[in-house]
Each structure stands twice: as C-alpha cells, then as structure tokens.
C-alpha cells in the first residue's frame, strides 16, 4: 500500500491480517506508521493491542481463534500450539474450566517469554506440527501430556488421559512421551497412566497368566517397559521372555481397528523388529475360547525365538 492509502481502504488492510490480527511490523510495511498503530489502540480508539507488537483491527471482544492467531504471530513462525487449546481442537472435551490460555512450544534458541494469556515453553523437542484449520498443533499425545503436567488435580488428569486413550492415544505412546520429556510435573500423570493401564489390562492379564501356566515356560516379565541400548523406548509388552527376546502382546481387535491405532501397532512392531525382538500377537478373546491352542502357539514362538537367539 502507498503511504496513507491504508486509511482510505481499511478492508484492504484487513486482507493482509489473520482474521483481523496483524503485527505492528507488518502494518509498518503496509505504510502505517508505528506510532499511529499504537495511538489507534488507545482506549476509545478503533484498534486494540492483543500482545506486544500484535494488534486487532477492531475494538470488540476478540474471538478465541483471534487470540490463538495473535499468540502465533507473537511467538514467531516456528511456534506450535500444545496443551488445552490443541487438545480441544483435536476433539477432546474432558478439560477443566479455567481461564483461556494459549500454550506454545518454540525452539530453545528463541529468546521470547510468555505474555498475558500466552504460555511460552522453549524446548529442544519441538514436534512436527499437525495443521488443523491453519493452526499448527502438537500431536495429540504431546498436547495431552503438556496439559497434564500443568494440571494439579488427579481427577482432571485422569479424565483427560482416559479420554485420550479412548480416542486412540496408545498407552505405550503416552508412557514414551512422558519419559522423553521433562520430569517436572510428571508424578500425577504417571500415576494416572498406571491406573488406566492396570484397568485396561487386568482382565486380559488374568487370562494371559492362566494360559502361560499351561505352557511350562519360565514366567515372563509382565508389563515391563523395554528400551534399546541407547535408552530409546521400544514398547511395553504384556509379557516379555527376556532370555530369548520374545514379546507377547495381547492385542484387542476393537482397539487396533482404527487407523491411528493400527498405525501405532505397526510402528510398535517395527521397533520390536529393529531391536531384534520376536513378537507374538494374540487376541484377548482367544485366551478364553482357545487357551490350549494359544498356549501351543506361545510355546512354538518361544522355541523359535530361542533357536534364533542361539544362532545369533
């Protein structure tokens, strides 16, 4: 825009914004003097300042989307939305009523702090964003745990984690993310995840132990987390025969039928293969309907894994 043209064409100015949200730097590029920007944000004037260097081109109440866009403009192009806002935009509803805030992840080298309703978290683990309606969001597992770390209520944390699991977040992924991030604020989420894991596995675990007793095999390690030699998370199998490198997974058809769950299972099995671990997958229903056949399969898988480990 030419100097002064913006004043005669406010709609043209709006087209350069994100739904009415724009930076002072961009307004200056468009010919609006910076002092004019700030003057127009004074009480009773037509604009308003949302964050340092970020303006809304009207004086009415900003929408939540405008507040999110303002936070992203304030934090810079690499910022990723996480926490409650990301959880809601990915369909979760089990979040406590609390003041609206935008939690952003930015690269560690960015020297920027939080402001107003914006929480800035500098991190070395900036995730690949999932873009929803133009908003870069952290993946669901990261978003959920970033929010859980900031919730002080066991009830709120349990409700959010339970809904995330119901929506397709796998327990191994959640435990892996919890271990990969900062230990700060992880006690309550970890406790809640273990309770969820115990509840989800308890019935199938009893059946699995009954089948195992029919095999004559040494007792596996039940629900123990596995990591590779570099400390990277592999999986948390239902049973693991460490001496021969055999993982036994009781995989529910219903749970793994969804696209996300199936992808998570494929990724888990790839990690097993990369670590040289044999995996036997069993449907939980077969533990009761075909216990002897499952026991025979477990024995055969154990023998195959044992032969493989001897040959290695």
Per-chain topology:
Layout: H1 5-8, H2 10-15, E1 21-23, H3 24-29, H4 34-39, E2 48-51, E3 54-56, H5 64-75, E4 80-82, H6 83-89, E5 102-107, E6 118-123, E7 130-132, E8 135-137, H7 140-148, H8 154-166, H9 171-180, H10 187-213, E9 221-222, E10 226-227, E11 233-235, E12 239-241, E13 246-250, H11 253-256, H12 259-274, E14 278-282, H13 284-289, H14 291-311
Parallel strand pairs: 5-6, 13-14
Antiparallel strand pairs: 1-3, 2-3, 4-5, 7-8, 9-12, 10-11, 12-13
Helix pairs in contact: 6-7, 7-8, 8-10, 9-10
Can you characterise this structure?
A four-stranded mixed beta sheet has the order 9-12-13-14, sandwiched between helices. The chain has a three-stranded antiparallel beta sheet with strand order 1-3-2. A three-stranded mixed beta sheet has the order 4-5-6. The protein has 312 residues and is of the alpha+beta class. It is elongated, with a radius of gyration of 26 Å. About 2% of the residues have low confidence. It contains 14 helices and 14 strands.
In brief:
By secondary structure, the chain is α+β, with helices and mostly antiparallel strands. 47% of the residues lie in helices and 16% in strands.
